[in-house]
Amino acid sequence: MLIPSDEIPQADILSDVLKTVVGVSSGISSYQEIARYIEKVGRQGRYYRKAAEIIGLIETPTSNSSVLTPLGVELLDTGVSITNPIFINAILNIRLFQRLIPFLELNNLHGLTRNEIIDFIILVSDLANTMAIRRVSSVVSWLEEINIVEKRDDRYFIVNSTINDNVEILHFTNIDEPLLPRNNELLEYQTVTQRAERAQESILIYRDMATTDRADNAHRNLVNIISERIKLAGQIPRYNQLIDLATKYNGENYIFEMKSITEDNVRKQLRSGLSQLYEYQYLQNLEGSNLVLVIEKELPISCRWMIDYLENNRNIYLIWDGDDNLYGTAATTEKFNFLDLIAV
Questions:
Q1: Do 77 and 21 touch, CB atoms closer than 8 A?
Q2: Structural domains in the chain plus CATH codes
Q3: Could you read off the pLDDT of 208-232 as tens digits, one per residue?
Q4: Looking at the whole model, is its pTM more than 0.85?
Q5: If you average pLDDT over every residue of the chain, what do you get?
Q6: N or C: which end of the chain has fewer CB within 10 A?
Q7: Sheet of 112-113: strands edge to edge?
Q8: Residue 343, Cβ neighbours under 10 Å: how many?
Q9: 4 HSE (CA, 13 A, CB side)
Q10: What is the CA radius of gyration of the chain?
């Protein structure tokens, strides 16, 4: 799916986007009033209003009268600041930035030039070339202002620590958005979108299952343990409405599915997790990725044969929790050295 041009900001100064939100909170509603409030010309009032709308802080339900959204109210209540994690999260939820973050990751060894970022925006959006050249100023300045990228010479590099310091887990809001794109070619985005469209019925079922699972304390604990260790390894944990966790490490992709288990449901849960991982791998076009099933405790003796079945027959790694220590077989421990597992 190409990103519509009206979802890509053209307001360079983030502090003035925040000032726009403050102005709307005080009763300023038209773009003309916004322009005067932020001391800019009339058309820039439209640009900055649209930028605040893209972030999700204001909305304009009538033709020229803006109001705060619930997120905008929350931002005001917690402090209007570029460093407010609510604000940073909101920017990272914009579809363009959800595509730029993996693109920056893929190219972080040598970084990206401004022209390479322009070419990427042209690739994934419906912006014309000349318009993309103008909009890249806003895109890059936003990333620099919230310290998501740093510039070295003429190249831009992602700063993972800023994301991890402000975001518990990077949330990809659209199921049809690649979590871990491998090459950032348009075909890759189209493939994921097409597979999601064809599997809509199954996706609804899995989404409901994921919602139920995430309400479980044991499940949340597993997600938190793994995500914290991913962060300690300097990588970015991410998820969407289906996938519990995914990340990159040393050029490889990892998909994690968490399952709470009891004596009575262990085989059912393992089978469910196995099928989910295969289907998520397909939907995300991540053939060859590492599939990981994480359970809350060691398998009962009667089911331990399934470790060999999962790891050596199904190519699914098994990790289990034990008093906030993570365990795995010797092979899994070696493979997942970045998670600091204990071999058994």
A1: no
A2: 5-78 (1.10.10.10), 92-169 (1.10.10), 186-343 (3.40.1350)
A3: 888 888 888 888 999 999 999 999 9
A4: yes
A5: 94
A6: C
A7: 112-113, 155-158, 149-152
A8: 11
A9: 3
A10: 22
